[in-house]
Amino acid sequence: MNALVATVILAPLLAASFGIAVRHKARVRDVLTLTGLASAFVASLGIFAEVYRNGTSVIRVGDWSPELGIVLVADTFAVLMLPVALAIILIVELFAIAQRRTEWGANPELTGPLLGVLTMGVSLAVLTGDLFTLFVAFELILVSSYVLLTHQGQQAQIRSGMTYVVMNLFSSTLFLFGIAFVYSATGTVNMALLAERIPELSDGVRLGIGAWFFVVFGTKAAVFPLFSWLPDSYPTAPTTITAVFAGLLTKIGIYAMIRFHTLTGMDAMGPVLLIIAGATMIVGALGALAQSDVKRILSFHIISQIGYMLMGLGLFSAAGTTGAIVFLIHHMPVKTVLFLVGGLIENDQGTSNLDRNGGLAARRPLIAGLFAVPALSLAGLPPFSGFVAKFSVISAGIAEAATPVVVMALIAGALTLLSMTKIWLGVFWGSKPDKSKPVRVSAANRRLMLGATGLAVGLSLFISFYAGTLVELGERAATELRNSDVYISEVLR
Amino acid sequence: MQQVIWTLLGAHVAGVVLAAIAGFRSIRAGLAVAAFAPTITAIWAIWLFVSQDGLAGADGPPTSELVWVEGLDLAFRMQVDSLALLMTLLVSGIGALVFIYAIGYFAPDAAGGATFPPTLLAFSASMLGLVWSDSIWTLFIFWEATSITSFLLVGHKNSDANVQTAARRALMITGVGGLVLLAGLIILAQDVGSSTLTNLAAAEGSRATLAAILVMIGAATKSAQVPFHVWLPGAMAAPTPVSAYLHSATMVKAGVLLVAVMGTTFADVQAWKVLGLAFGIASMIWGGVGALRHVDAKLILAWGTISQLGLLITLLALGTGKAVFAATSILFAHAIFKAGLFLIVGEVDIRTGTRDIRKLGGLAKSMPITFAVALLSGLSMAGAPPLLGFPAKEAAIEAVLGLSGWEQIIGVVSVVGGAVLTVAYTTRFLIGVFGAGPDTIVKPRRLAMTIPAVVLGFLSVAGFAALGLVNDIVRPAAIELNAKSEVYGLVRWPGIKTAFVVSMAVLIVGFALGVGAAARKVASAPNATGADAADGLIDGILSNTPRFIAVVQHGSLPVYLATMTAAVAVAGIAFTDQVSLSHLQLWDTPLQGVLAAGIVAAAAAGAAVRSRLGATLTLGATGIGMSGIFIIHGAPDLALTQLLVEIIVVVGFVLGLGQLANQFPTVDNAWRATRLAVATLGGLAVMAGLAASSANPSGVAPIEDLTAGAVNDGGGNNVVNVILTDVRALDTLGEVVVLATVAIGILALANTRRAEA
Known about the structure:
Chain A is mostly helical and 493 residues long. Helix content of chain A is 78%, strand content 2%. Chain A has one domain. In chain B, α17 (389-401) packs across α21 (498-519) and α18 (405-434) packs across α21. The radius of gyration of chain B is 37 Å and the shape is elongated. Chains A and B meet through α4, α5, α6, α8 and α9 of A and β1, α6, α7, α22 and α23 of B.
């Protein structure tokens, strides 16, 4: 188990370090990056299998006691998250290798290594049982994503990168303040001890801490009204980069929020979370409708979908938390693949603007198919994972009689469907635009791009097919999070 | 019998793939391949009817279950009961005929060969799944699938912007209806504690009322009930085989089917009946009126469908044994005659190039076979003997006559009124399409189009002739919906009873009305006010959202930061509950106070100065003050690090400032005041947080353990160093990587700048 966890965190780092050294040798660098990411992915499957069979596994880094040192905790929630996240990064790197020689691609020399750093951050954020290490993981993710966003040096990217990095650094600063509050109130940053000690605090301090970390994680997760950085920055990045960001970054924020707020028993915050969830869903969906560019529409969808996850969390019921977790896991590959298809559309037409696209379904039915599956899933239609996710969240809401937020969720669902038809009508129907300047991509690279996108669709279909298992594991994860006694005893044992 | 469900559905799925492959060659090849699965399914259904045992065989009705998500009770649970078998006959029987018809309908070189046949077959499979489902979730899953495939099929000729709009309207109305239905079904399932349709418990109470309303609305969107009907005439933009199949015979019946199977569950819910009657009667009348106004033969039929669906919903909402029986009979008869009429309109369209009844003339002579079929199907629709529509319509009139009280009055008036309108628009349709007029040029007949229409026309006659067999099909289905249907049957010659007199009067009045309407000259096609309103709503949302989003997403970083600070200030309010100052002391040593005052002064100066250089220097001053505090607390290493960082930052800034203007841009006073206020509140929130969180800690930092551990386990006397390099080495590794990554980022940016220069 130790070796597997070490692999998940360190293999991407090693690949990144050596990758930087040989960045000018394309083949060596690509092979190295893929090897690093693939070994992390395979190791994550190993961790999954181990935890699936034997339950939560705890690693004390440097063998220090939990009171003093850092612990890594592989519980059900973590091992659900990890393989999906790592698979996404791996798939996107495949796509990037094919695409990077085009004008839309990212700088080939740095993308791989930076993805390695990002992966390390993601693994650490998912596995850590320590609030300060979570901060470090967030920093890793932030700087690597910032450099990924801006390293090509285009004006638009640097300008939007500014918004991105300043907002996120500010939220990191608030994170540090939050850690200071927590440490002075409880004398620890260990999550298990926090789960024990935060509920013992007076209501004011407990809720203050909960609200504070809601702002911190909420900024990362792009909830209303803290989401503004996302639609400003994501669409300017190269598509491959956006695909990773879209699939992972906000999700790490919501992951941290689900973990922190359930383990520390912030149930009293439920009503506030539900109000914000409703606003996030609606604003995100309306924002998507307002756009006329595929990538911008998709960026706003992220926000709207975060609202559903927040709704599941805010219900603070077993079914609600399960719904939030199921939604989270479903969402990652779906969102990634939609952006990858956005990249394919760009390659075909030279732009992802709806007004300068059209008739793609007739010309490239395969792309239409690759888009249709995740689009239907995102819109919450059966028989895809998105339906299961939406169903579980909404039925949890109805069971808790949270009528306003359920109505909001349904309205947001309708608006999301409408924005998907906007893309479908704009890109896939109609006639081919007069002026188009396809990006020249070699046949082999095009096949690789289609293949990578297909893999992501496959991953999403795999999750749809095994949605029963996902819900079962989601229930298990929710139980573990909500009954913090078990988590506490596992970690402190 | 258990495997038969999966075998047939599997044949459909395989057919979708094969049809797509064959469709690459030509659309006709794709259609021919696609016809296979519906054909064998229809043969299977017919065989079950004619064989001795039928569904009542030793195994009972075929059932099957495939659990998808156990935790949420989502399963593909199917049961082919009598109602399902009746629907199978329609879905697959008419489906097979439509596929054959489409072979003639499309030109050999028509586009969309790889998409149209598989999509149509996918619809067919979804519809089968829907009628076979025995779980409300199975039903819902296939329900949504039919909406999506319908959208794709309506948009077949999508290079036309009007077609796109029509497809979008259909999808949005049925899609929103689907969401409403989902909410209703979830409430229902939670209320009765089961999702199995067979023997679904009766629901009552306020939650049941809510569920009933939501389910009825969902059904009304799908079955094109007023005011949701506006998508159906628009959906006529689809190729005619699609209109015949989806938008008259099968998909639009899904809502009716749902109302039928939920009938006993909601039998005691008053809102169910009231809402159903409101939808049904409004649609029956308004649909009939619409059919009298339009001049496009296909639209006449579409509006007629709205009216007929209204009749079905009305009868099912009344819910008596006789009404349910009548509804089941009309459901069956309607699918046959209406599909036949659509096929005829498609043939007329293809062979004459128009569907406008003002331009068509002399077709009775030039298209005799088509005319004969139209006459049979039309008379069946009008409810005239000796055709299948007659006994079905008789049953409906008898059913409403048999009611009592206000239900009888409403039922009789509306059903008779609807029937008169039906006769009228049928008459107008037949006269308009086939009547006298300037002879229209007619292209040669295509056999593939004629045969299916002839079969359907023949069935309307044969159904009347073999009324016993039709009874065997319809009655068990009606009994499943309402056990009281058992005593009823379709009767070929009812004798001179009230119902018969009424229906003869209906025929005469309707005929006269129809002849009159046909003679009326219509200058232009009626406005599609309802459809325009729906599109206006959608376009209104689309065109107004940018303005709304411009408010929340204005692109100004300072505003974003102010929002975030304000959020923190709000979060900090909770802390004020606990702020106590008694546990706080002013300072450990007065030196702290001096340093703190310096830091505060520098920070305030930093906020106030206008020059960038001044801001940089004051920022550096706060950092140097911080390193002083580190020294007081005995951490010289940290102080040194902090000092170095500050120096590098200041030097870096100063070097970079040359590129920028000396002064910050000016901001207006109101915004300046807002920022000041928000920042102050944010700062106060941090202070409140620190004061509150240290007031009554629930645990203390293990400083002694850490110190002892550092010496004994860590092997170092400098605790801070041991923490950084051993206890929390993972954090340190992470931060090292962070710094290295930042360095890479700076180099990358510098390189692109150099490359540009």
